[in-house]
Amino acid sequence: MNKHLTFLVIYFCVANLMAQTSYYVSQNLGTDANGFGLSPTTPFQTINYALDDLDAGDTLNVMAGVYYNDTYGNGDIWKNEKTVSINNKHGNEHAYIVIRPYQDHAVKLKGDGLYILHIRNCSYIRITGFEIEGEVNSIPLDSALAYQFAYRELGSDVILFRVTPGTPPEVVETLTFEPLTDIERPSYYDTKGLVGQLSHHIEVINNHIHHTPGTGLRFNSSGYIKVIGNEVHDCSRRSYSGTHALVFEACDDMNTDTDTKIWILRNHIHHNYNEIYSWAPSKTIITPIIDEGKGISMQRNDVERGWEYGRIRIENNLTHHNGFSGLHTNSGRAIDFINNTSYYDSYTGNGNNHGISMQASEDITIINNIVVNDIAQGGFGIAASNSSSNYTIDNNLVHGTIDTRVDAVDNNTIFADPLFTNPESLDFTLRSISPAIGAALPAFAPADDYRGLARDVNPDLGAFEYSPATSISSNNADKQIIHVYPNPFREKVIIEMSNNPPITIALFDMVGRSLINDVKVSFNGYRLEINTSNLENGIYFLNIEGTVHTLFKQH
Q1: Residues 435-493: pLDDT tens digits?
Q2: Phi and psi for 134 in degrees, rounded to 5?
Q3: Alpha helices of 126-232 — where are they, by DSSP H?
Q4: Which listed residue, 65, 279, 334, 390, has the most CB atoms within 10 A of its CB?
């Protein structure tokens, strides 16, 4: 390369770096006008206004507060409003557009319209660190039931009902209908949390999505998507559309490469279920039972709808207490379920799919998972419909049963209690005597577990690699014996040590925020006390000299 060409390459690289801009938003301090948005002291006021200025490589820093859609709380149950709308924004392979809370500020997005955060026709965007909250706690179940069958013809204000409210289910199942087109249904009872459409190279990382009446997190007709480290819970509860917590539908393969193009990794999906049975305008019958409300649901990802090349990787996820199956594929292909943990994913009690399930799907692998299904409710830990084909089921642990089609092809299934540390308190780490330890196929096991801890050469089944917490090395020559309790905790966590410190500790929440500066730590002899009274209920990770303890706060 000659010196003139070298200079030009350096010039354009530097120019590209210089073009990357940080913008700031604060609803309390900001102003939506020219001359604002470029510093924390002179921010924009609204996220949607700031989005107009974003180009490849830019970062939007959102400062602390609760951000609502414009007409939030006005009582209109039909509005198509969005709290945050990201449309036609594009980074590039080397310069993602990043949208995040400023310096780990607590930022909540709320909405009572169609979507809370909507991404459409976008590429190379990273969304990280937000809390997204819906209106489930503000919608009485009776209200949702009253509008369960409501709809309007487009352009009309007249409310019609598919079925008269209060009609007994045994009567509903005898009715037949003409298909409906060009209608709308009340969005207030089906508000979705984070939705991506017609987009590619989108990363959704470490967000907390909860209590949305409809789907929590959803992508349609999109490719090269990474959904990593999110918590999604208490979603789909008021929806008339039979939806789920985390959904991918009609994935777009983008090109003929056959590598992985969709990653769903290390997410915590729990307590998502439907409380209302669903109906579809295009169908001529209504089945009046609750048979939806899954945890992770892959819908219609097949060749017909654009998913011919590439694979979907669903790995190291923790699902529990979801309504009707923890991990599921319907009309899908080329999906890998690897090292997930599913526990009592049968909250609504209907049907047979209570763990990992497939329907009308092909080329599916189910390897290294742990599934515990509620035997008293019936159903199967792993299930396959007779319309599914070409599936591989190896080295899983099932505490419960599998269906006959799975039983015909499975290899090395362990039927046993996985011996979780304390599942009643939602601690799904493994005890030292767990049969899941060392039982995984190494060639398929990911390098790290749900917590980001390295797996060893003989990896374990499920989302959590066994991590002994009773004996670790300290800066002293002797072994340091450590006890951490109570778990679950309330007002404090106690660390007792056999030797005098020093030790190094760190406390993190589910989205990776360091909390040690936000809690008070007191020391007395061989005992440390962490005051946790100001922490919210949830899962926390306490790192003591490199050993991670999973802790749970609950009142």
Answers
A1: 999 999 999 999 999 988 899 999 999 999 998 753 222 333 345 567 777 777 778 88
A2: -100, -165
A3: 141-146, 169-172
A4: 334
Cα 183–Cα 185–Cα 188 angle in degrees, nearest 5:
155
Q: Which residue has the tokens 């939705």?
A: 195
pLDDT tens per residue across span 81-92: 999 999 999 999
pTM of the model: 0.84
Between the alpha carbon of residue 490 and those of residues 47, 429, 495, 528, 543, the distances in Å are 36, 20, 14, 16, 18
Q: Which region, left, alpha or beta, applies to residue 465 given φ > 0 means left and ψ of -120 to 50 means alpha?
A: beta
Closest Cα partner for 371 from 431, 327, 422? 327
Whole-number Å distance between alpha carbons of 197 and 207: 18
Cα separation, 63 vs 377, whole angstroms: 46
pLDDT tens readout for residues 142-152:
999 999 999 99
Neighbour-count burial for 487-504, b at 16+ CB within 10 Å, e otherwise: bbbeeebebebeeebebe
Q: What distance lies between CA 352 and its chain's CA centroid?
A: 23
Domain boundaries, the chain: 68-407, 471-553
- Domain 471-553 indexed as CATH 3.40.640.10: no
